[in-house]
Amino acid sequence: MNAQPETEPVLPAAEEIGELRKEIDWLDGEILRLVKRRVEVSKTIGAARMAAGGTKIVYNREMDVLARYRDLGPEGRQLAMALLNLGRGRLGR
Asked: Could you tell me the pTM of the whole model?
Protein backbone atom coordinates (compact mmCIF):
# COMPACT_ATOMS: atom_id res chain seq x y z
CA MET A 1 0.00 0.00 0.00
CA ASN A 2 1.38 3.40 -1.00
CA ALA A 3 0.94 5.81 1.91
CA GLN A 4 0.65 9.42 0.94
CA PRO A 5 2.23 12.03 3.19
CA GLU A 6 -0.16 14.19 5.14
CA THR A 7 -0.35 17.71 3.85
CA GLU A 8 -0.28 20.68 6.17
CA PRO A 9 -3.45 22.80 6.20
CA VAL A 10 -3.13 26.09 4.37
CA LEU A 11 -3.13 28.79 7.00
CA PRO A 12 -4.51 32.24 6.23
CA ALA A 13 -2.13 35.15 5.95
CA ALA A 14 -2.34 37.74 8.72
CA GLU A 15 -4.20 40.15 6.43
CA GLU A 16 -6.84 37.49 5.66
CA ILE A 17 -7.79 36.96 9.29
CA GLY A 18 -9.81 40.19 9.43
CA GLU A 19 -11.83 39.12 6.39
CA LEU A 20 -12.41 35.67 7.85
CA ARG A 21 -13.63 37.27 11.08
CA LYS A 22 -16.06 39.40 9.08
CA GLU A 23 -17.35 36.22 7.46
CA ILE A 24 -17.80 34.62 10.89
CA ASP A 25 -19.73 37.69 12.04
CA TRP A 26 -21.98 37.45 8.98
CA LEU A 27 -22.49 33.71 9.49
CA ASP A 28 -23.35 34.29 13.16
CA GLY A 29 -25.96 36.83 12.09
CA GLU A 30 -27.49 34.33 9.67
CA ILE A 31 -27.44 31.54 12.25
CA LEU A 32 -29.12 33.81 14.80
CA ARG A 33 -31.78 34.86 12.27
CA LEU A 34 -32.50 31.23 11.39
CA VAL A 35 -32.57 30.08 15.02
CA LYS A 36 -35.08 32.83 15.87
CA ARG A 37 -37.26 31.71 12.98
CA ARG A 38 -36.93 28.07 14.03
CA VAL A 39 -38.04 28.97 17.57
CA GLU A 40 -41.03 30.88 16.20
CA VAL A 41 -42.11 27.97 13.99
CA SER A 42 -41.59 25.43 16.77
CA LYS A 43 -43.68 27.44 19.24
CA THR A 44 -46.44 27.83 16.66
CA ILE A 45 -46.52 24.07 16.06
CA GLY A 46 -46.48 23.36 19.81
CA ALA A 47 -49.34 25.76 20.49
CA ALA A 48 -51.44 24.25 17.68
CA ARG A 49 -50.71 20.72 18.88
CA MET A 50 -51.64 21.52 22.49
CA ALA A 51 -54.79 23.40 21.41
CA ALA A 52 -55.85 20.24 19.60
CA GLY A 53 -55.35 18.21 22.79
CA GLY A 54 -51.92 16.89 21.94
CA THR A 55 -48.82 16.68 24.08
CA LYS A 56 -46.21 19.38 24.60
CA ILE A 57 -43.53 17.30 22.91
CA VAL A 58 -43.37 14.46 20.41
CA TYR A 59 -40.46 12.20 21.39
CA ASN A 60 -39.99 10.65 17.93
CA ARG A 61 -39.68 14.11 16.44
CA GLU A 62 -37.15 15.14 19.07
CA MET A 63 -35.10 11.99 18.40
CA ASP A 64 -35.07 12.93 14.70
CA VAL A 65 -33.72 16.38 15.57
CA LEU A 66 -31.02 14.91 17.81
CA ALA A 67 -30.01 12.46 15.06
CA ARG A 68 -29.74 15.29 12.55
CA TYR A 69 -26.96 16.91 14.59
CA ARG A 70 -25.09 13.67 15.37
CA ASP A 71 -22.42 14.41 12.76
CA LEU A 72 -21.16 17.24 14.98
CA GLY A 73 -20.36 14.87 17.84
CA PRO A 74 -21.25 15.54 21.49
CA GLU A 75 -21.41 19.27 20.82
CA GLY A 76 -23.96 18.58 18.10
CA ARG A 77 -26.22 16.92 20.64
CA GLN A 78 -25.84 19.93 22.93
CA LEU A 79 -26.70 22.24 20.04
CA ALA A 80 -29.77 20.17 19.15
CA MET A 81 -30.90 20.16 22.78
CA ALA A 82 -30.47 23.93 22.95
CA LEU A 83 -32.62 24.34 19.83
CA LEU A 84 -35.27 22.02 21.26
CA ASN A 85 -35.24 23.89 24.58
CA LEU A 86 -35.60 27.24 22.82
CA GLY A 87 -38.59 25.99 20.85
CA ARG A 88 -40.53 24.18 23.54
CA GLY A 89 -38.92 25.24 26.81
CA ARG A 90 -36.98 23.10 29.23
CA LEU A 91 -38.61 19.88 30.35
CA GLY A 92 -39.40 19.18 33.97
CA ARG A 93 -39.81 22.83 34.97
From this structure: 0.78
